[in-house]
Amino acid sequence: MTSVTPVILCGGSGTRLWPLSRSGFPKQFLVLSGDDSSQSLFQQAIIRVNAIASPQIDLGATLIVTNEDHRFLALDQLRELKNIKATLLLEPAGRNTAPALTLAAFQAKDVANGAEENGDQDPDPILVITPADQTVKNTTAFIKALQDCVALVAADQAKQTIAILGITPTAPETGYGYIQRSGSKGAYSEYTVEQFVEKPDAPTAQTYLDNGHYLWNSGMFVLRASTWLAALKMFRPDIFGATETAWVAKTTDQSDRATFVRPDKAIFNTVPSESIDYAVIEKCPDSIFSIKMIELDAGWNDLGAWDAVWQVGKQDENGNVTSGDALLTNTKNSLIHASSRLVSAVGVENLIIIETADAVMVADRKNSQDVKHIVNQLEAQKREEKNLHRKVARPWGWYDSVDEGERFKVKRIQVKPGASLSLQMHHHRAEHWIVVKGIAEITNGDRIIALTENQSTYIPQGQTHRLANPGQTPLEIIEVQSGSYLGEDDIVRFEDTYGRS
After folding, report:
1. Residue ranges of domains in the chain
2. pLDDT band at residue 34, thresholds of 50, 70 and 90?
3. CB under 8 Å to 98, separation ≥6 — which residues?
4. What is the dihedral of CA 20, 21, 27, 31, to 10 degrees?
5. What is the dihedral of CA 195, 13, 474, 256, to 10 degrees?
6. 133-188: per-residue pLDDT in tens?
7. Which of 118, 329, 402, 437 has a Cα at 20 to 30 A from 147?
8. Distance (Å, rounded) from C-alpha 5 to C-alpha 145?
9. CATH superfamily to which 391-495 belongs
10. pTM score, two decimals?
11. Class of the 2-296 domain?
């Protein structure tokens, strides 16, 4: 039986899908499309890759490489999936996909070496690597293609084979890199990769489509952990060395039955930022590493822009894709997403209209890639709309900033059963709390009190305090802040269940 470790690369901020995708809640955690509309792209990716288990494939725990700031988003969505065992590898800063995969390779080797001592596992597992932000319509074809990749890699006793999924192109797409393949198939329906080519202009993309030997690069790979580490050490020893040093100095901890592995922050921040493709994969043709490609024709899309979301969405008789409270008349070939209110469209074509509680974005579909320029302007102006929604997820629940003005802010706060906020204080603001639903256990200075529906309390400026939910149902309160400064950085934490103090 072949030992396989799934790897989910869960970084990135998805700026082209602003305002729904933001750095604090990026696109992989959004519910955008797919057969099950209740699952995020991240959850769909985990389910798909775990479905390759078979009598010939023994799957280990899924390795999820994500940002430290997104650990509780990932953990919350993992809890909703049954029978998925996972370890979260937390990057203190984004360094692109090559260092991310290197962390996963080190972890897989460490786990396998420990299991080998008990005679339980191959000490050099095969890694199946997929991004967390793609969609696939034909899951059966996807599973078969990955299983073929695993068989191909497992058959190579020299451990020098890398398999990549190439996507059957459906149009002269200029937004993807391409793979040029050989003309003949091997025993596992694989082709030899002759070269990788960058994103082409439109005429070149049409030439690739007409040629038939060029496929889109999916960013999905299958290879042994040792193969990746050896190739990285050969082609980019600087990335290998710095990442290895950060890994040796790692820390491991548990939180709510989940395992968090953290490379050393200071060292990891020195790792060069580079993609898997640029660091290794594109250098493999004509090297000692044999790079093969298996074709995938399964309705794949990486949802790189809003036009792609329209393409994979369920279109009505006029070619419109809608979500939320949307009313249309004489409108064609448009995407309308309403998050918090009624959105209407009259007499328009080929538009993208995305509404959230604090932002509205309107774009021509053909220019949807240019949303990134709006995000760049938001960053230059240091506007919070780039990073966070009005409703912000927290490990203990969420808060929604429903109103604010000079010297005041009003929040709606929900706390999960059994959860609590940190023990904290504020230098510049006081807070009034009103319980709307549930039971609140409140630490207010030296006192601990319990409040129920319609009861309230006052937290003076500078007072140490904490909000907790001792009940079995969600706690909801209204918080009114008042003071000279109401920023989220005016929090001094003394104790915190989630390691933020």
Report:
1. 2-296, 315-376, 391-495
2. very low
3. 232, 236, 239, 274, 275, 276, 278, 279, 280
4. -20
5. 60
6. 999 999 999 999 999 999 999 999 999 999 999 999 999 998 899 999 998 899 99
7. 118
8. 16
9. Jelly Rolls (2.60.120.10)
10. 0.91
11. alpha beta
